[in-house]
Specification:
single chain; 285 residues; alpha+beta; six-stranded antiparallel barrel; six-stranded antiparallel beta barrel; 2 helices; 12 strands; elongated
């Protein structure tokens, strides 16, 4: 069995080595020159060639799809990065545009106020939801700032200077109980005196000295009267939210909310000069 097995293996190797030659010979010969052996080999090789061809096409397709997906992933990552950068740029430009709008409104307010002013940036607020005092830092040195000087925003009256420490100024807002300003109803000209309610749960002012015969309605805008020694005339202060006519007495009860949205307050103007000959209104402290 030993020599037979060895000769068998040798013969098998020879046949396996020879078969590709005969298959190749059968495939390259012209059809009219093929014999029975060639046709048999072609018949036997056809399924094998088809199988390997299909396998090769499948592998090629998988490789192509893999390369395509790799390219798509790389392109998606690149587009995602570019989109993120563009969104950041748009956000930055929107922020700059909003800041420019605020500064233009602040410059417009400065042009309307017939007095010397200095601009300031809000840097902190007291630690409550409805704060009544804010700190601002000046954009430029202004040694003439003193307590009780008016503080304004493009929307209207913010409050008054409370304390000064170098370039940092503490501002008492219009809703603080220590604030007061002489006002008129813009629609009717009825006079009153706005004083901060000092409440911890909402922004509110009360309007004192409004005579019972004066016409005041919810939604009316209260503006500075120009009387007294603080605020220029015609600046919005508050909007009337409640009017109670009393059965007795010469005054009616009026509540209002400030025009300025203190939660979004960012820049203010401090009025440095005023009329030195003015007379304080009865309610001013």
């Amino acid at each position: 069995m030993g020599p037979f097995k060895r000769y068998r293996d040798i013969a098998l190797v020879i046949v396996l080595l020879a078969m590709p030659f005969f298959f190749l010979r059968a495939n390259i010969r012209r059809p009219e020159e093929t014999n029975f052996v060639d046709r048999t080999l072609l018949t036997l090789s056809a399924p094998i060639e088809y199988t390997f061809s299909a396998l090769a096409r499948g592998v090629s397709s998988l490789l192509g799809e893999y390369v395509y997906l790799v390219d798509v992933k790389r392109d998606n990552n690149k587009l995602a990065y570019q989109n993120s950068r563009l969104q950041a740029k748009v956000s930055q430009l929107s922020s700059i545009e909003a800041e420019n709008r605020r500064l233009r409104r602040l410059l417009g307010l400065r042009d309307r106020v017939a007095a010397e002013t200095v601009s300031a940036l809000v840097i902190s607020k007291d630690m409550t939801d409805y704060f009544r005092v804010a700190r601002v830092t000046l954009d430029a040195a202004a040694p003439g700032i003193k307590p009780n000087m008016p503080v304004l925003s493009p929307e209207g009256v913010v409050g008054k200077v409370l304390r000064v420490a170098g370039e940092t100024v503490q501002v008492q807002l219009a809703v603080d109980s220590g604030f007061g300003a002489d006002v008129v109803v813009e629609r009717t000209g009825a006079r009153g005196f706005v004083r901060g309610a000092g409440e911890n749960e909402r922004y509110l002012v009360r309007v004192e000295y409004v005579q019972s015969t004066d016409v005041v309605s919810e939604g009316d805008i209260l503006v500075t009267s120009g009387f007294g020694c603080r605020f220029p005339k015609g600046l919005p202060v508050a909007r009337v939210t409640k009017v109670v006519k009393r059965d007795f007495g010469i005054y009616q009860s009026v509540e209002a909310e400030p025009i300025v949205d203190f939660s979004r307050l960012e820049e203010v103007l401090i009025v440095l000069t005023g009329d030195e000959n003015c007379k304080p209104s009865p309610g001013e402290r």
